[in-house]
Structure prediction request, 824 residues.
Amino acid sequence: MGSTTTPRRSNTRQRIQDVALKLFLEQGYEKTALREISDELGVTKAALYYHFKTKEDILVSLFLDLGRKMDELIAWGKRQPRELTVKQELLARCSVIFHDAAPLFDILIANQATLDALSVGQDFKDRVAALSDLLQEENSSLNARVRCATSLLTLHFGTFAIRQLDGDPEEKRLALLAGATELLTSAHEGVLSGVAGPSAGVPPEG
Amino acid sequence: MGSTTTPRRSNTRQRIQDVALKLFLEQGYEKTALREISDELGVTKAALYYHFKTKEDILVSLFLDLGRKMDELIAWGKRQPRELTVKQELLARCSVIFHDAAPLFDILIANQATLDALSVGQDFKDRVAALSDLLQEENSSLNARVRCATSLLTLHFGTFAIRQLDGDPEEKRLALLAGATELLTSAHEGVLSGVAGPSAGVPPEG
Amino acid sequence: MGSTTTPRRSNTRQRIQDVALKLFLEQGYEKTALREISDELGVTKAALYYHFKTKEDILVSLFLDLGRKMDELIAWGKRQPRELTVKQELLARCSVIFHDAAPLFDILIANQATLDALSVGQDFKDRVAALSDLLQEENSSLNARVRCATSLLTLHFGTFAIRQLDGDPEEKRLALLAGATELLTSAHEGVLSGVAGPSAGVPPEG
Amino acid sequence: MGSTTTPRRSNTRQRIQDVALKLFLEQGYEKTALREISDELGVTKAALYYHFKTKEDILVSLFLDLGRKMDELIAWGKRQPRELTVKQELLARCSVIFHDAAPLFDILIANQATLDALSVGQDFKDRVAALSDLLQEENSSLNARVRCATSLLTLHFGTFAIRQLDGDPEEKRLALLAGATELLTSAHEGVLSGVAGPSAGVPPEG
DNA sequence: TATGAATGAGTATTCATTCAT
DNA sequence: GATGAATGAATACTCATTCAT
Prediction:
């Protein structure tokens, strides 16, 4: 008792995921060869296949958690009344989820052409579409619809894009959320003047 | 009047570009084999090499026009005073350029991981950064900076994303521009009410 | 005119087929690696892929002629009346075809487990079944049916097996054919005493 | 009465053999991965290695019984005088052995290319050759020799081939044996007119 | 009796690119 | 202006086998 034996279960599986995440981020999913992953880990390619059935399987395993969280949020959203405050809360919770999984979003965004052909890409698209639906108001104007869609998009792509700005990450997240929420809120205010004007549509100032 | 000589250059070069654009869009740059392009054209792979030095070269040729237009806009922006109206005009002109080159943006966005390693991707990133700089105000709050960045982003990714929404393309473009302009404008108004609700929480502004 | 230029079309395709046939015979289809074929030819594996789409494609190309000849024979057989003499002629023509394609039969027989999963194996089985059908008499006894089936089989497997016997090939072929024809003929004679006897069925002598 | 000890040896070894036999039959020896065997048994691949030294060893174990029986028959044959009746009895006993071990014959025949490189294949070939020798008459004509060889062959390949014919298995076996015996018997009758004739050697019909 | 983890050598296939003609 | 033939380097994946526990 009180045995000090080392754990029988090695942590190789976890280490594969870590290295894969890193390399997928740095080089993209397609351009990352399994050999690179195994080399970095000091194991053989075949070892990867002991832990994962395919290369895609490694990728999928990385997204399991995120998928679960998004599904929970969607389920929650469906149980709520369709009110602006609920939608704002939805956006806020999205913001948290997205930022927690920031590296995964990088991969998702940077490898779209590749992931679109994979279940992982389709699943994610479906979930974002479900969330987007929850934000939409029926029978609203095109302007409103574009704004609703854009509000989620801002979070989605913004998460990925604001990293290069200086500043505290949490502050930046909140600033991004603020912008997105504004977009969403403005879509729910009756007065959305059909904006368009001179020179390619810039609204006349003043 | 007008030249009477028929063009000596066959249109194969152009046809290669057309097919390449189509396939890069449908399948991604990396997953499109040169054989697919040549097959669709009814020529051999080797024929492509008569017209273009490398596969990347085909891609680059597709982006020449867009690059030129963006450079012109950046140059124009630099000659203008740093005023909100100028920035709004900048956004509007961007909107036009982006929408005219919509398919190229699809490629850019969907193939980021790949294009980041290529000159074409870096050049574009540089240009967007230059435009983003033109929108920024010095010494502004983080909130303002995020919004400025987001306004351009909205245009950039939105162009790509609103295609799945119903509605007239031009109307959608203007709606998207309106949202972006709003974001930009709000960044230049002192009062940035922190919109957001409970939980996940935007800090209440004093 | 009277140009002495070497042929532009290299004979590589043919040489691939020759080497493949040889190695498939010596080692079996599955155990023959494409690398072995290309090595023996002094080209790279990729060169094989210029001439054939897949490994299976090389195999298939080897069987094209044989398939055609068997189809012609089957077609011929179907046009003839169902008489013993016709069947004997069928067997005789089979004998010629089989012996001409002897190496292919070796491959077919020795690699059954593998080829059964490939079109080449199925196609061949179908053709042999069609020939076997042409030899059968309707409403004949089990004894007769087994003999008819066996007569073709004798040719099929015998072709492959008598090679190790000494003697002139053509003589051996005729001897094999004679045995097969006997089997077929006896199936068409009324008197097929239900053979069976003592100790596991040896016919009682004399 | 009887031993009261339960068998210490688990039946895993037997179960491995059963599953292996089934899969070797269905898919061929080479295409059956050890993982498939262990999966079907609900054990790990490594477990197989506790019971058998190699994959080939599993195969070999399957053929032990058949080999013994054939050796006994050969030994018996060698002790007998070289008479037609003995040869007929030899054929009859062969028929029984072959039919009892029908699945093994399927494997042997369908995997020749593979098994030829293995002891199991060579051993079997040797035994069949020994049996064939026992059937042969010294100084007989080519025709007679081909017939003797063919008679055994008919049994060997026929066993495998008549399964697709309708009818009672035992009846079919006897019919096959009858054909084979006829071939053998005719080889021992003096008059074997050198059959050959017009058009690829069909005997002229009376 | 068995397993978890890993290996090493191999396989078919793909692709951008080259070059003599 | 284009082709036929070929290359070299890479890739995902499979499999029998080993061994400490």
About this structure: Chain A touches chain B through 59 residues (CB under 8 Å). Chain A is about 70% helix and 0% strand. The first helix of chain A runs from residue 12 to 27.
